[in-house]
């Protein structure tokens, strides 16, 4: 990766931002300073695109609150969503047979897992199986008593938790024993996910950028977790938040302030006045 050359005006045509831990503060809101900085970048000719691990149903209300009418990449790249039209443009689902085989291989290594899953579609529910520790907050989910219900409809991804292993440990085991069957990523605290093989935020962002007529060389990306690594690899310039996972910081072009300290705005304001 290499930084774009600063010329007159804003040097990028696309600003790609993760949501949780990046664009959103810890109270799930976007600060006025960050809103203003993004609006100024847009006024300077750049498009802003949200690239999040959240599926559309968990993203839509945030985009509506921002008055966001462009494209968003959701579900770790599985979904390209048109916010202004409230419709999916593309959607990739997880092969449930491969996912089941992957889970069997992981459980053979570490013992029983607790599971959750994100159903496909603009209104797809997130199902929470027995023992899965859902995060407290405003995001809706549907608890189920029998984990077999997870497999009844098309899915974008499966969430896995282990009673003893840390997120990093579970990710490492899952990637080692099942990485040839499914994609494995870590999107936040307690969030290890199984995805369609080859899918990442980078693949979804590339599709959206192509629709916008923008290239990787014109893109600056902001993130905080290992699931943002592919996006940083695709974009010309990757900016990790101060609160980011060490693996992301290791591949970032720069580290800004935290999501609580308007880290996105700090960088955009600097670029807008350069």
Walk me through the structure:
The two termini are 21 Å apart. By secondary structure, the protein is an alpha/beta fold. It contains 9 helices and 14 strands. The strands form 2 sheets. It has an 8-stranded mixed beta sheet. The protein is 33% helix and 23% strand. The model is unreliable at 1-7 (pLDDT under 50). It is globular and about 55 Å long.
- The assigned structural class equals alpha/beta
Mean pLDDT: 92
Number of helices: 9
The helix content is: 25-40%
Main beta-sheet strand count, sense and barrel state: 8 strands, mixed
Low-confidence stretches: 1-7
**N-to-C series of helices and strands:** EHHEHEEEHEEEEHEEHEHEHEH
Spatial shape: globular
* Radius of gyration of CA atoms, rounded to a whole number: 18 Å
Give the N-terminus to C-terminus distance in angstroms: 21 Å
Tell me the number of strands.
Answer: 14
Beta-strand residue percentage: 15-25%
Strand order of the largest sheet: 5-4-3-2-1-12-13-14
From the structure above, extract its key features.
33% helix, 274 residues, eight-stranded mixed beta sheet, 9 helices, alpha/beta, 23% strand
Summed up:
With 274 residues, this protein is of the alpha/beta class.
Protein topology:
Blueprint: E1 14-17, H1 19-23, H2 32-43, E2 47-51, H3 56-66, E3 71-74, E4 79-82, E5 87-91, H4 96-110, E6 114-119, E7 126-128, E8 142-143, E9 155-161, H5 167-178, E10 183-188, E11 191-195, H6 201-212, E12 219-223, H7 229-234, E13 237-240, H8 246-251, E14 254-255, H9 263-273
Helix pairs in contact: 2-9, 4-5
